[in-house]
Amino acid sequence: MELSDNTIERICKVFGHLALLEKKGVEFVSSKELAEQIGTTEYTVRKDISLLGGPGYTRKGYEVSSFKRELGQKFQLTKSRKACIVGLGRLGTALLDYENFQEDGFEIVAGFDCSVNKIERIRTNIDVFPVSRLQEITQARSIELGIIAVPAESAQEIADELTKAGVKGILNFSPVKVNVPARIVHLDMDFTNALRFIAARFVMQNK
Amino acid sequence: MELSDNTIERICKVFGHLALLEKKGVEFVSSKELAEQIGTTEYTVRKDISLLGGPGYTRKGYEVSSFKRELGQKFQLTKSRKACIVGLGRLGTALLDYENFQEDGFEIVAGFDCSVNKIERIRTNIDVFPVSRLQEITQARSIELGIIAVPAESAQEIADELTKAGVKGILNFSPVKVNVPARIVHLDMDFTNALRFIAARFVMQNK
DNA sequence: TATATTCTGTGAATAAATTCACCAATTCTT
DNA sequence: AAGAATTGGTGAATTTATTCACAGAATATA
Hints:
The structure is a homodimer. By secondary structure, chain A is of the alpha/beta class. Chain A folds into 2 domains: about 5-70, Winged helix-like DNA-binding domain superfamily/Winged helix DNA-binding domain (Arc Repressor Mutant, subunit A, Orthogonal Bundle), CATH 1.10.10; about 80-195, 3-Layer(aba) Sandwich (Rossmann fold), CATH 3.40.50.720. Chain A is about 50% helix and about 15% strand. Chain A has helices at about 5-25, 30-40, 40-50, 65-75, 90-95, 100-105, 115-120, 135-140, 150-165, 190-205; strands at about 30, 55, 60-65, 80-85, 105-115, 130, 145-150, 170, 185-190. A 6-stranded parallel β-sheet of chain A has the order 6-5-4-7-8-9, with helices on both faces. Chain A has a 3-stranded antiparallel β-sheet with strand order 1-3-2. In chain A, helix 7 links the parallel strand 5 (about 105-115) and strand 6. In chain A, helix 1 (about 5-25) packs across helix 4, helix 2 (about 30-40) crosses helix 3 (about 40-50) and helix 8 crosses helix 9 (about 150-165). The radius of gyration of chain A is 20 Å and the shape is globular. The mean pLDDT of chain A is about 95. The interface between A and B is large, with 63 and 63 residues. Chain B binds a DNA duplex through helix 3 and strand 2.
């Protein structure tokens, strides 16, 4: 069956929240509470979950641990995945040891930058390389995800490199949309546009 | 008239692309090209623009400069807006001087952190303060936007502080959803969930 | 034990978003 | 000058997403 991107995104959020609840030792959670936590309605949560055939219990809700396990299995979210970061400016280096990635099974196993000077200056436990070795290292280390943190000008170029290197997914933090073949999943996260949206949304709301 | 969030977001992207084209000295741009650049279809671009009543020219497209000016006016995107960053860990400090913000009229005028040690160590041109002074400074400097870069545990607390301080919008980089009154526009940007989505999407795509 | 309550699951209804189809206008080509 | 090609604008059609409504099941309550 075909799940929409919206549904997949919400399910991912649900997974994140289940992980939190599990840590807290909570046993059951209702569609209503999940909805509040991920910012949608209980109807939508139930519909999403029903598409997966997940079992909920009358008057109790969903069983946190087993449901989390099921989602993890279905979407392979428990499997640890290797990622690399390209572009080691401020944002890139910040991401290099972004603790939340590690906690969630995403392991940053390499960083790349085109400036050799910068590579030498960086103090981190993660191996850093010149961009010229991107394909070699990506393949040698079975890196599945590429994170783009280079300036707009070189974003597409890096996306192409990552594509050639055979990554499965790309998270792009540069402020331009990148084009990659459809088989590669990619997501653009443009901070500036996010602020713009907030400002524009605010203006419209108060008209 | 009521514009949907999707439309507003696309229009913001269009605005960003128009700025780029203007810099390059391009005079006209078609709905088709805009669509490619922002990742949608030409129909959608035309529909969005027609909702604004923007004028396009047969066989030429939209006039870059004047259209950008019009959008800037309508959504007040040219007005410079002041923002602050709360949480000066790696991500927060990276955002402190994220060049793209400045270029786009968002001015980071203060940083906050609860650790006084950290505040003293930070080397930046932007003024940094203890979180205890958040409301005071926000009001004194007419800060309109708050950027949350604190750990999950304190995100909601900071969102509440920002709300009390009277910001108009919040961009939340912590991995939990924050709850704020409807009058405040907010957007959650959860990196980990983004990676999760990419991974899950990839798995589903290949089933 | 009977009744009320509170959950999920899901088909149907509604609403929203996108895509299509095609007219009108302008430019290009021959 | 005539015809072909390209482009925007927009109502209609279609598709997609969300919400509703309510049956069915388990639990709580009296």
